Amino acid sequence: MFISTNAANGQEFYRREAETWAAFAAKLDDLNARQAAFAALSVTERTVRLNRFAARLDEAKEMLAEMVCEEVGRCLHECRAELQKSVELIRYYARLAPELLAHKTIATHAGLSQVRFEPLGSVFAVMPWNYPVWQVLRFAVPAVCAGNACTVKPAPSVAKVSAALFDLVGSELPIVPAWLDHGDTLKAIEYTDALAFTGSTATGRLLAAHAGAHIKKTVLELGGSNAFIVLPDADLAQAAKEACYSRFRDAGQSCNAAKRIIVTGAVADEFIALFLNECAKLKSGDPKSPETTLAPLHRADLRENVHDQVTNAVENGAKCLIGGEIPVGIGWFYPATVLDEVNPACRVYHEEVFGPVAMILRAKDEAHAVALANDTPFGLGAAIYSADTKRAWHLAEKIEAGSVFINRHTSSDLRLPFGGVKNSGYGRELSEFGLYEFVNVKTYWQK
């Protein structure tokens, strides 16, 4: 069952039944036939279709942004940014795919030797709720550029906007929804050629284990608990402003947000005061209002888990500087919360916090800051703030993460690979590296 609830008022507004396995299997048979015809097109012909889809998405982006706002609960201006970035993603790959997927002739002792990039076939994806358009297209667009077909299981709580997205895709591109219940999700992996998953580490382990048992290629983008390191010579006001934005945008429900703020040396108290001042400017309320900067959480159970993590931290010695209480009223709102003196006895020290909760870790020096940054099961991203960029680069080399940003909060860029290490997953999305994840890199040799 797919059920959508408005996060701001708690009211259910959409539901649909899961499809039967027989219906999905018939859809998959049809998709496989379409994939063969699609793969036979030149890369340029595929990108023409992608550009037409980009134009349709561009026209519909305001409608879809409002749907995401209602269904996910994020602020409307944040949803608009997701849609705009999604349009840019399609056009980016449509522009670069012909060059990146061109046959590459390699000089060897053969008469002719080439490397070609050929599709794997059908990629099955299980996608999260927090960015229901961007996350789908981030994997699907490069996959279809390479000639693959895609079946996508949306998160059960964002079916309405997902259905609207697939309607916009239309029949030109081999991308279709998989309205499957949990029991049939594992089965679908066996009948497709590869798996893309974005979501929790626990679910990623389950799906990847099943895919591995059937020798299916996988790309996993899992949780994150990004370090935000502030060195003593940093521009503290700017660092505080960006830490606040990164931690509390999208109600803190982003894997790539700043979550562990590591402040070094004697500037900790000064930075915390500046950070709390920035947090005080956040305004909670109707996500459709232009004045709102802190949206509600997506579901009631997610709010309860965040509050349990905060309560556990306080019980184990952390100090709650602001927030930390569930507000009275309708909707799944939770205040901006800052925890100081967080220690390894607290759950938040080891777990991902998927909500508007920032934790402060105080480091004695740079070496201690790096040790704290790496003392986590996750390895998605990190940020380092310092006036000495040479020193920041030196520290960045010691950080165990898929990306490190210097004097900027962590984010994603179409032109750069995105992904993590450790429990944050493996494989890469975006850039040319994302384009090559779901291809058969095939060698041709002629005497």
Key terms:
447 residues; alpha/beta; 20 strands; six-stranded mixed β-sheet; seven-stranded mixed β-sheet
Low-confidence stretches: none
What does the overall shape look like?
globular
Largest sheet: 7 strands, mixed
* Count of DSSP H/I helices: 14
Helix content: 40-55%
- Average pLDDT confidence is 97
DSSP strand count: 20
Distance between the termini: 57 Å
Radius of gyration: 23 Å
Strand order of the largest sheet: 12-13-14-11-10-16-17
Instruction: Tell me what portion of residues adopts beta-strand conformation.
Output: 15-25%
Structural class, judged by helices and strands?
A: alpha/beta
Structure notes:
The protein is an alpha/beta fold and 447 residues long. It is 42% helix and 21% strand. The protein has 14 helices and 20 strands. It has a seven-stranded mixed β-sheet, with helices on both faces. A six-stranded mixed β-sheet has the order 7-6-5-8-9-19, sandwiched between helices. Helix 7 links the parallel strand 8 (194-198) and strand 9. Helix 8 packs across helix 9. The longest helix has 30 residues, at 43-72. The radius of gyration is 23 Å and the shape is globular. The mean pLDDT is 97.
Question: TL;DR?
Answer:
With 447 residues, this protein is an alpha/beta fold. The protein contains 14 helices and 20 strands.
Break the fold down into its secondary structure elements and pairings.
Blueprint: E1 2-5, E2 12-16, H1 21-39, H2 43-72, H3 76-100, E3 104-105, E4 112-119, E5 122-126, H4 134-145, E6 149-153, H5 159-169, E7 175-177, H6 182-190, E8 194-198, H7 201-213, E9 217-221, E10 226-230, H8 236-248, E11 258-264, H9 268-279, H10 300-315, E12 319-322, E13 337-340, H11 347-350, E14 357-363, H12 366-374, E15 378-379, E16 381-385, H13 389-396, E17 403-406, E18 421-422, E19 425-426, H14 431-435, E20 439-446
Parallel strand pairs: 5-6, 5-8, 6-7, 8-9, 10-11, 10-16, 11-14, 13-14, 16-17
Antiparallel strand pairs: 1-2, 3-4, 4-20, 9-19, 12-13, 15-18
Helix pairs in contact: 2-3, 2-5, 3-4, 8-9
